[in-house]
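Appendix C: a fully annotated inverse folding record. The material below is reproduced so that readers can follow the format used throughout the book. The structure is listed first as tokens, followed by the designed sequence.
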């Protein structure tokens, strides 16, 4: 039965294997060059006082191959659609399953072999692709220092996504018994579950931490939440509160969009927009949003003095970088368990309900 399952699947396996091989060659040819640039230019940029331009230039290296990370968003879904959904639905739709069941092969052995052979191949493909992408992207990831921003495209969780997508496709194929509708349902189901984990479930794997710091000017190196803002942590929420504890801003600024603006009033006075009138004058031109060019030291000190007069604070809810691997294992385990539950349900359905 294993031999038969492999013969039915081998063409798809050869095609995907060839594509992975071609991608591996491209990454192996360009990866060492990226590591060399990072070690010789980016790491030493502070000594030359040109980190800004150097980092921007480095992040634009190999822009085409950088898109390979998106494969880890697409490949698990594609495996579920093209390997999982047709696996059993095609046989139920065409009626060829009856031939297998009239031989010495039992229903349980038939579905178990199919799920194990192709399911294991799906996990291997996702694991190998993730290994290659994680290695090749490591210089960019170290520079951007945002591990949670690429959480679903790195390390071990794509293996769980592939296992779940494959099992979901196979079970939907068993239930729907039509290949094309099962493929469409697999895509919808996989996207919904991934969305639920990304938006709601992942951040609840562990109770988030909270920090409260004095609100800083947008040009301050500690703007928003001190070292938390720049340490690769996952900022879940960022609220600005006034002296009475009322929330007056989000996203590290004032108002729902996080704006930080000052404007000149008649008579030379200044206003912190959305907060109140500054007790001191701010030299013209006033500081604008966080995207403005860096103002003079006199303006910076005047703006910070105005901000301090309102006793504003930033309240940050976050997950620290130290929990990254714990979350990787939690999410991998969650998707593997979901895949096993789906596979078990499909196994039971074939044995008891399919005539």
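Designed amino acids, in order:
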């Amino acid at each position: 039965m294993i031999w038969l399952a492999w013969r039915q699947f081998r063409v798809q396996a050869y095609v995907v294997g060839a594509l992975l091989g071609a991608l591996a060659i491209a990454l192996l040819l360009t990866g060492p060059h990226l590591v060399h640039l990072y070690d010789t230019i980016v790491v030493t940029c502070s000594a030359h006082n040109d980190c800004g331009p150097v980092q921007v230039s480095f992040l634009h290296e190999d822009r085409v191959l950088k898109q390979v990370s998106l494969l880890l968003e697409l490949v698990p879904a594609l495996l579920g659609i093209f390997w999982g959904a047709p696996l059993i639905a095609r046989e139920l739709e065409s009626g060829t399953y009856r031939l297998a069941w009239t031989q010495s092969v039992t229903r349980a052995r038939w579905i178990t072999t199919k799920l194990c052979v192709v399911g294991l191949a799906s996990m291997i493909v996702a694991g190998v692709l993730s290994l290659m992408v994680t290695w090749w992207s490591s210089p960019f990831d170290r520079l951007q220092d945002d591990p949670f921003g690429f959480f679903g495209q790195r390390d071990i969780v794509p293996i769980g996504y592939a296992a779940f997508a494959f099992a979901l496709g196979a079970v939907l194929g068993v239930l729907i018994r039509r290949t094309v509708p099962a493929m469409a349902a697999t895509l919808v189901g996989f996207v919904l579950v991934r969305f639920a984990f990304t938006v709601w479930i992942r951040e609840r794997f562990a109770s988030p931490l909270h920090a409260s710091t004095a609100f800083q000017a947008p040009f301050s190196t500690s703007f928003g939440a001190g070292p938390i803002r720049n340490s690769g942590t996952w900022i879940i929420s960022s609220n600005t509160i006034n002296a009475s504890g009322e929330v007056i801003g989000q996203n590290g600024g004032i108002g729902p969009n996080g704006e930080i603006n000052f404007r000149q009033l008649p008579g030379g006075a200044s206003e912190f927009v959305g907060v109140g009138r500054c007790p001191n004058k701010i030299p013209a031109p006033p500081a604008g949003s966080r995207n403005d060019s860096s103002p003079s030291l006199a303006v910076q000190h005047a703006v910070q003095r105005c901000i301090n007069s309102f006793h504003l604070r930033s309240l940050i809810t976050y997950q620290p970088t130290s929990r990254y691997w714990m979350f990787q294992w939690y999410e991998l385990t969650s998707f593997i368990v979901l895949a096993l539950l789906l596979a078990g349900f499909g196994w039971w359905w074939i044995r008891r309900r399919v005539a």
